[in-house]
């Protein structure tokens, strides 16, 4: 996507084999990039959320394997790198998907070929992510057009949660891909952006992205969405996903479930943008079977921002002594609250039969 007229991706290979990434921790205040030179550095970048968002986590892990193969390309090194990368963040299934895919492709190759091959495979996975998101956005555009036609003569109000934008992918985004395509097609729209505590991905990333592209948007506090829906100010919700089950349950950033409940209560369509690598056909019941990452207490007790002198600062907002140890990063929205899954193959109902018809069995899906 464009930043000040210049085309960017979130991750790329540097000429010397290092991996370049946008460091999301500095946004929206500064656009900074980092060079990752080893698999260990990629692990830190994923774990500490320099890069984040399910598809981008998968892409970063693929390049992490390439860096590992550059260091040592034995079977043991491949296994160890996969295990270390897999442990960085447990919830988004794209991480496991990317590691499974690359290790399956690399394992039969002679160790001497693996280094070059791993870079090519990582680049291929990244290009595929871009194509998937573009196509997914095309299907989402049709939904947005239909919604706009239902509300002629006024702007369409879309609510999104967290950052399922191009920063969360290699390019385009998932939820935002449809929004960018609709905006570019001249549809008059406006986006309500949930701030998304505790890490404020909506405030710091989605609002920044939309602003760079010129998309009209308003940042709202997480608790405002239900009120806006009750007053007819939300026509459509589109969110991303970290994992979707074979039954259509959606695991996404904490707070998604509450928005889905409010949407259901107010007859607001609630769509989930789901690239196929985010579908986990090995899991049926999202509530019982998905491991939810519990993140650091500091995310609750502290907030980060920019000081008047331009320094990035983190300050405490909670009293010392109050427990902040329960910090689930994600929740599960049951399939019954999901109007549809926007995928690169088309819009799919969130139920086992429709998902099986579009994506088949776990074996076929691989
Ligand atoms: C298209 S990204 C899916 C997803 O990733 C985010 O999680 P995180 O910021 O913790 O990596 C969020 O749940 C987005 O919707």
Automatic annotation (TrEMBL):
Active-site residues, Swiss-Prot/TrEMBL: 242
Binding residues for substrate: 52-54, 89, 201, 252-253
Reaction catalyzed: 5-(methylsulfanyl)-alpha-D-ribose 1-phosphate = 5-(methylsulfanyl)-D-ribulose 1-phosphate; 5-deoxy-alpha-D-ribose 1-phosphate = 5-deoxy-D-ribulose 1-phosphate
Entries under InterPro entries matching the protein: IF-2B-related, IF-M1Pi, IF_2B-like_C, Initiation_fac_2B_a/b/d, M1Pi_N, NagB/RpiA_transferase-like
Molecular functions (GO terms): S-methyl-5-thioribose-1-phosphate isomerase activity
Any Pfam family the entry gives: IF-2B
Record-level GO BP terms: L-methionine salvage from methylthioadenosine
Pathway: Amino-acid biosynthesis; L-methionine biosynthesis via salvage pathway; L-methionine from S-methyl-5-thio-alpha-D-ribose 1-phosphate: step 1/6
Keywords: Amino-acid biosynthesis, Isomerase, Methionine biosynthesis
Enzyme class name: isomerase
Residue numbers marked as site, Transition state stabilizer: 162
EC number: 5.3.1.23
Function: Catalyzes the interconversion of methylthioribose-1-phosphate (MTR-1-P) into methylthioribulose-1-phosphate (MTRu-1-P). Also catalyzes the interconversion of 5-deoxyribose 1-phosphate and 5-deoxyribulose 1-phosphate. Part of a bifunctional DHAP-shunt salvage pathway for SAM by-products.
Cross-referenced PANTHER family: METHYLTHIORIBOSE-1-PHOSPHATE ISOMERASE
Family label: Belongs to the EIF-2B alpha/beta/delta subunits family. MtnA subfamily.
Protein name: Methylthioribose-1-phosphate isomerase
């Amino acid at each position: 996507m464009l930043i000040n007229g210049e085309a960017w991706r979130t991750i790329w290979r540097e000429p010397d084999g290092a991996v370049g990434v946008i460091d999301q921790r500095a946004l929206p205040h500064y656009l900074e990039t980092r060079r990752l030179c080893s698999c260990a550095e990629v692990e830190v970048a994923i774990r500490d959320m320099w890069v984040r968002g399910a598809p981008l986590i998968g892409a970063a892990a693929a390049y992490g394997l390439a860096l590992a193969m550059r260091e040592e390309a034995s079977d043991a090194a491949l296994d160890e790198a996969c295990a270390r990368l897999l442990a960085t963040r447990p919830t988004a299934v794209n991480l496991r998907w990317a590691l499974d895919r690359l290790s399956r492709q690399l394992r039969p190759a002679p160790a001497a070929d693996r280094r070059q091959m791993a870079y090519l495979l990582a680049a291929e996975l990244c290009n595929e992510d871009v194509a998937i998101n573009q196509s997914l956005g095309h299907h989402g555009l049709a939904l947005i057009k239909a919604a706009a036609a239902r509300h002629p003569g006024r702007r369409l109000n879309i609510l999104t949660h967290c950052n399922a934008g191009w920063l969360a992918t290699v390019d385009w985004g998932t939820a935002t891909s449809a929004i960018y395509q609709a905006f570019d097609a001249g549809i008059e729209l406006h986006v309500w952006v949930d701030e998304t505590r505790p890490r404020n991905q909506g405030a710091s990333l989605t609002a920044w992205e939309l602003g760079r592209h010129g998309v009209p948007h308003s940042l709202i506090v997480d608790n405002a969405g239900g009120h806006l829906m009750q007053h007819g100010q939300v026509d459509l919700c589109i969110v991303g996903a970290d994992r979707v089950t074979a039954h259509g349950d959606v695991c996404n950033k904490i707070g998604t479930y509450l928005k889905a409940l409010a949407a259901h209560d107010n007859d607001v369509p609630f769509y989930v943008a789901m690239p196929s690598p985010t579908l986990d056909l090995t899991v049926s019941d999202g509530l019982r079977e998905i491991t939810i990452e519990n993140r650091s207490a500091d995310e609750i007790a502290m907030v980060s921002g920019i000081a008047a002198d331009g320094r990035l600062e983190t300050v405490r907002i909670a009293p010392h002594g109050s427990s902040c140890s329960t910090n689930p990063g994600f929740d599960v929205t049951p399939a019954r609250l999901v109007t549809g899954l926007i995928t690169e193959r088309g819009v799919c109902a969130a139920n086992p039969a429709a998902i099986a018809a579009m994506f088949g069995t776990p074996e076929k899906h691989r």
